[in-house]
Specification:
The complex is a heterodimer of chains A (about 180) and B (about 350). Chain A is an alpha+beta fold. Chain A has helices at about 1-15, 90-105, 165-170; strands at about 20, 30, 35-40, 45, 55-60, 80-85, 110-115, 125-130, 135-140, 150-155. The chains are: A alpha+beta (about 180), B alpha+beta (about 350).
Chain lengths: ~180, ~350
């Protein structure tokens, strides 16, 4: 009887291999050959097809549209939309400046780019844009081949100020999972 | 024959007079109808018991007055040939008496007494001194003596009352002391009975407590402050029961809500201070707001705890405890110490 109880106890203890103090302990990992990032699911749901670009996740989305070019998150009625895409032959600062111009031309308020560091210490760029009905924040990390991976989050203004958004952006690493 | 009778008569006549003389003498002896006070030398009737002047007991101490027989005095006076009383003398007074007694209302001087038998100098002196009884000084002295007697009696009564008061006060103090001792002993007995009653109470039936443990995230400690209600179903040597916990997990960026329901089983040593050891297992939920959405996670826990039920009264126990518990959420775990303080009934 004591042995059974002990076995049950050990099995229970063995089923939880991850330290709960890690902030990403409950997060999932999206893996791409060139990058990876962490996301919390729930609440994020995958909207895009596997291995397709852009990678779309949404929180409380009403639909699952097929990914389109441009800013697919604009057409999605979701509380939050996460879009990750690789832009070729451009540095992170240039890509950020281009998007700022586009948003500015659309009438959104923009803030100048600021340096941004991932959890592994990768230095990138982050930009902000505020319009009447939504805020956009984006993070740009440079890939080894001279490309830039962009993680863009679209949502209501108060949702983008939280620490969870910061964790999400910091989780973007310009390398495959397990890579250096 | 006639000569013989005449001879008898002549012989009997002197005997008659001798008898008569003897009778007179006896009569004088017993005829003491007046007595003299030995102090003031005043004559009083033999019916008088106490001298009114000085209070002398005349019955005992009075000197009988040798009163001359009037007939014999008169006979003597006749024999002396003095048939006529002297001028100024009262009826029945002899010349000598009349000459000796002077009436004061007629301006005559008088003598209180002609008795010279006891009229010595010292006696006369005592009669005129302050020590003589019957005078105003003597009355004052008598009054003083009476007052002194009253004072003496008063002081004696006062002393008696004081002594009585002291004895009653002492008695009252002794009684109070005995009462206090009895009360103290009764209190001691009650404490002993209570201690005996508290021994063997075991675990309280129910308890309400405050528990703390840790579920950190990142750099935040993640302290969980929770209220817990225990229900002990087995309370003597075997300790078993259920508990309900609700708490707040405090992180730097947010606060999560946690509910846990535990089952515990273990051993206890039932005493007034009753130590116990239990194994705990729990299941519950953690509610966390992430990306603006409330997420509910299933939480489980296993652990062990030691504590001590301290019965402060037969119906109230204070139980501090400390333990270890592993909280699990999905595939994450938190190893945490847990401390608790509760009050049981």
């Amino acid at each position: 009887m004591t042995l059974i109880v002990l076995c049950l106890l050990l099995s229970v203890l063995g089923c939880t291999p991850h330290d709960g103090t890690d902030p990403y302990v409950l997060w999932e990992t999206y893996e791409d050959p060139e990058f990876h990032f962490r996301y919390l699911s729930p609440p994020f749901e995958v909207l895009s097809e596997p291995s397709s670009m852009p990678v779309l996740f949404a929180v409380d989305s009403d639909e699952k549209p097929f990914p389109m070019r441009g800013m697919p998150c604009d057409g999605i009625g979701a509380r939050l939309c996460l879009e990750t895409v690789v832009v070729e032959d451009i540095l992170p600062q240039d890509a950020a400046r281009q998007d700022l111009e586009d948003w500015k031309n659309r009438g959104a308020q923009v803030e100048p780019p600021e340096p941004f560091e991932s959890v592994r210490g990768d230095i990138g760029v982050r930009i902000w844009s505020r319009s009447s009905d939504r805020w956009i924040t984006a993070c740009y990390q440079g890939l080894p081949a001279g490309d830039t991976v962009v993680m863009k989050i679209v949502g209501k203004h108060n949702d983008l100020d939280g620490s969870d958004i910061l964790l999400l952006l910091q989780s973007l690493e310009p390398r495959p999972l397990g890579g250096k | 024959m006639e000569n013989d009778s005449q001879m008898n008569t002549y012989h009997q006549t002197p005997l008659f007079w001798v008898a008569l003389f003897m009778i007179v003498l006896v009569a004088k002896g017993i005829r003491a109808d007046e007595v003299t006070c030995p102090v003031c030398l005043q004559p009083f009737s033999d019916e008088t018991d106490v001298c009114p002047n000085d209070g002398t007991n005349i019955k005992l101490l009075g000197v009988p007055v040798e009163k001359k027989d009037e007939t014999s005095d008169k006979t003597e006076q006749k024999e002396d040939g003095k048939d006529k009383p002297e001028e100024g003398a009262e009826d029945g007074e002899t010349e000598e008496e009349g000459a000796g007694y002077r009436r004061h209302d007629r301006g005559d001087g008088r003598r209180r007494t002609k008795q010279s038998g006891s009229g010595t100098y010292s006696d006369r002196r005592s009669r005129i001194s302050d020590g003589r009884l019957g005078s105003s000084t003597n009355l004052g002295k008598k009054r003083r003596q009476e007052e002194e007697k009253k004072l003496r009696l008063f002081l004696e009564e006062d002393k008696r009352l004081l002594d009585d008061f002291d004895s009653r006060r002492e008695q009252s103090w002794k009684e109070r002391q005995q009462f206090r001792l009895a009360e103290f002993k009764a209190q001691e007995d009650r404490a002993k009975a209570q201690a005996r009653l508290l021994d063997g109470l075991g675990a309280p039936l129910t308890s309400l407590g405050f528990r703390m443990f840790w579920m950190g995230e990142g750099r935040s400690e993640g302290i969980v402050s929770a209220a817990e209600i225990d229900l002990n179903l087995a309370r003597y040597r075997l300790r078993a029961g259920v508990s309900t916990l609700i708490g707040i997990r405090s992180l730097s960026s947010r606060n999560d809500l946690i509910f846990l329901e535990h089952v515990f089983i273990g051993f206890q040593w039932p005493k007034r201070f009753s130590p116990y050891f239990v194994l705990r297992g729990g299941v519950g939920v953690l509610v966390s707001e992430r990306f603006g959405v409330d997420l509910i996670y299933l939480v489980t826990s296993v652990g062990a705890e030691v504590g001590i039920d301290s019965w402060v009264t037969p119906w109230i126990a204070v139980t501090p405890s400390i333990g270890y518990e592993r909280y699990m959420l999905n595939d994450a775990y938190w190893n945490s110490a847990t401390v608790k303080i509760s009050v049981g009934f």
